[in-house]
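Hey,
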Amino acid sequence: MIFEATDLTPAISKLDVCRYFTATGEPLVRALGERPTAMERWPDGWREGMRLALGPQDREGDGFYQKRLPKGAPDYIQTVQITFPSGRTAEELCPKEPADFVWAAQMGTLTFHPWPVRRSDVDHPDELRIDLDPQEGATFADAQRVAAVTKELLEELGLRGYAKTSGNRGIHIHVRIEPRYSFDEVRHAAIGLGRELELRDSGVTTKWWKEERPAGSVFLDYNQNLRDRSVAGAWSLRARPGAPVSTPMTWEHLASVKRPQDYNLVTVPDYLKDGDPWEGMDAEAFSLDPLLQLWEELEGGELNFPPDYPKQPGEPPRVQPSKKVAEHWDEHGNRIEKQS
């Protein structure tokens, strides 16, 4: 059994998961096709209390990310070479057809994590990803409010966003962009967007350190646009009670949702009978220049990168605020060098 029964769903088997990925195969290929994709695998299924491994050295996790294609994959499975921040490379799954997702499901894959690039150019993203993550004290309704403000801002700048539930309490907004920007530029565009949203909605934060984020705020995770960072792919299952799905929606439909967990392995195939809300996403690609202009105009400078990234030029100190010794730092957050 992959998922235990809940008040929303019966117990779910591996066969049920395979049938789900068969039913959603066409929109899955549309959303993930030609993209390097990591697999989030739970070989023994998922139960409350199980934990996702934090990295390749963490042997205690019940689930893990499979970034390199496993040995023994069928000949029809295609790959693409990607480069990690460390400079190392790997051959990663590059989905082409619905059967690819069923093959992955047989190994316990529940969630697919696609890169924001295509096989034809793995160094220039064609997608800006806006990850709205409600913090402690915030709700899905808070994410809906911020998503509506984000939609309005994007439209003012001449961009079109496509929304989906995260499969938990958050919301993801994807914007198809011209594939001519670096990962760093796309990240800066997300920071520019986040800073403008902070001015428009006091409930938005771009603070990297969790303890600095106000209770009840919605965090815009700008680092999800970096190399080797990815959000749960559209139509993916999530390792949560009731097998919820990261579900694409029209903006009108998103505004009406009360419980995102109502969109799950059991209900989403019927939901899709009304059509794929993201079907037209590839019809247009937008310039990031308006968002990069916000990055240039709004004060704040560089923000922190994830801890596994090399230290970057202009990045603030990687010291949690609670661990800073006050006299070692100036008013701008820079370490004061000791005088010899």
